[in-house]
Design goal:
Layout lengths: L31 H22 L4 H22 L4 H57 L5 H30 L1 H23 L1 H11 L5 H40 L4 H10 L6 H17 L4 H26 L7 H15 L1 H30 L4
Helix pairs in contact: 2-3, 2-5, 3-5, 3-9, 7-8, 7-10, 7-12, 8-9, 9-10, 11-12
Amino acid sequence: MSKSGSMTPQKTLKPKKIPPKKKASLALKTTPQQIQLWILGGGITLALFFYYFHAIMMPFGVALVFAYALDPAVTFCEKKGLGRTAASSVMVFSVLILIATLLFFTIPFLKKELQSLATTLPDYFKSLMEDLMPKIQSWLSTFKGELHTKIQDTLTENLSKMINWIFTFLASLFTNSLALANLVALILLTPLLIFYLLRDWPKILTYIHNLIPPTLKSSTLQLGQEINATLSGYFRGQASLCLIMAFYYVIALSILGLNFAFTIGMVSGLLAFIPYVGFFTGFIAALGVALAQFSGIDQLLIVVAIYGFGHTVEAFFLTPKLVGGRIGLHPVWVIFALLGGGFILGFTGLLLAVPVSAILAVLLRFALHKYQQHLKGYAP
């Protein structure tokens, strides 16, 4: 009722709506600096891991290379309707059968030649020393007095040390428990590791892909494709190169009539994937056998011509044609990578030097490209 007594209704006041408070976001924003710290920390962790466990990494490294090489074939079988597990099993058994077949046909030749080498090596060494000692004695006779004695004592002492080192090294191969463990693991574990890696290869790639920050996914995928193209081209080219060079050296040395031509030729060709190592190893072995087997100089010149022609064709035609710019490395960097890999990891480093250098070259070119794009922002 109003003051005047009328029954006019009063206006009711509506309560004001209080806007709801904004909920605090619990998502943490990741800055580029944090991403860089994560990448740096992951890189340091991986480096420390490989530094402390590199002695047992041989089976895993070999399995990883085989899984990487066989994944396209497994993917092809999978597209044809075969399951991933079944396709992986088929590929592993196929590789084992192929290796067993190659060993079945090559081991008889190798066994025969190695047995012959074991029986004739002392005679070769004796005839070689009988041939060289008069020349060494005549050379030493040009020196007079105490100098002659010192040079002779030095040569004798160093020769005995070298022979002692060789036998110690050969003995260590059979007595070193770590080397034997690696060999047994390489034979028994590698097929199993290849199977598991092949079966789970897509899952591994997906897991790695999910670890990449969203802002870096496009550039990282592009970088991964370039690395994949470089490595696949390198492995295919090196496999073809090794087979061609092995066939050439075996045929050429067999036509010459050199003893152990099959073994020396196979070693020369199959080691061609390590630049200069296959050439020098085969050349020194062939030259040593030729010195002991032949009396004339004509055969020695033929051996020099065989390896000179083979190395020329390999370096100037086959390598540019089959490998070429797929790795994009200058020969100076290849030599540096081989020396660095051998110094850090020994023989394993020699095997990994060139492919790892190819990956680093791709990363370096990518970083330089990004840096040049960054510099364009400062251009006047």
